[in-house]
Amino acid sequence: MSIIQGVSISCETTPTRMEKNERLKKARIDAGYSTASDAARALDVKIATYSHHESGDRDFKDDAGRRYARRFGVDFVWLMHGEQLKQAARPKANSRFHEGITPDSDKIDWDAFYAADERAQKMQFRMTGGGMVDQDTYDELVLHYYRQELAAKSSKSE
Question: What's the pTM?
Answer without folding.
Answer: 0.50
